[in-house]
Amino acid sequence: KSANPQWWEQFDFHYFSDRKDILDIEVWRKDNKKHEELLGTCHVDITALPTKQTNFLELPLEKHPGSLLMLIAVAPCTGVSISDLCVCPLGDPSERQQISERYCIKNSFRDIKDIGFLQVKVLKAVDLMAADFSGKSDPFCVLELGNDMLQTHTVYKNLNPEWNKVFTFPIKDIHDVLEVTVFDEDGDKPPDFLGKVAIPLLSV
Asked: Which of 66, 130, 167, 197 is deepest in the core (most CB within 10 A)?
């Protein structure tokens, strides 16, 4: 019941500088559980924003009255990466040694926020459900840890896809759960759900 809502929510997205990313924002109103109405959209060109500072933006909603006030900061992020198996971040013995020293007991309280990191090798999926009329699927895999999300490329027309990717996440809370979800890419439509597994960090 407000024309001037305040949310004060923060969202973290991984932005890789070699991509030209547009942040798409939609504002919706909800009458009840069944009825929703789009109040407007706006777009932010991430590549045009100055880095290493907080940018205050007042974004007018397209084709609708009103505007959206946002704070957007583009800052370097450490610990997040996507790589191929052949260049696995922990494959180098000297790098493993550096990491062992970084997280040894004597350094436990040097940086309270630097708990550690998780490396996940996504190799393949087997016997996935067919989501297309052709009896195949176009699967890709999404990994979520806390509010961090990374995903693989899509392997088209395949029920036994091989991704062979290595994902590295910084750990912010040791009680977080790694969620791995497989979707079927469906063009402009929302992807179809093919399966999910949840792995608590404390079980690793």
From this structure: 167
Q: Using CA atoms, how far apart are residues 195 and 204, in angstroms rounded to an integer?
A: 21
Enumerate residues 6+ apart whose C-beta is below 8 A from 78: 170
- Element (H or E) spanning 137, and its range? none
The predicted model scores a pTM of: 0.63
What domains, with CATH codes, occur in the chain? 22-74 (no CATH), 81-203 (2.60.40.150)
Cβ neighbours around 99 below 10 Å, total: 15
Q: Decide: 181 and 195 in contact? Cβ < 8 Å.
A: yes
Q: Nearest 5 degrees, angle CA 150-CA 125-CA 85?
A: 60
Of 36, 37, 40, nearest to 24 by C-alpha is 40
The region that residue 90 occupies, defined by phi over 0 for left and psi between -120 and 50 for alpha, beta otherwise, is alpha
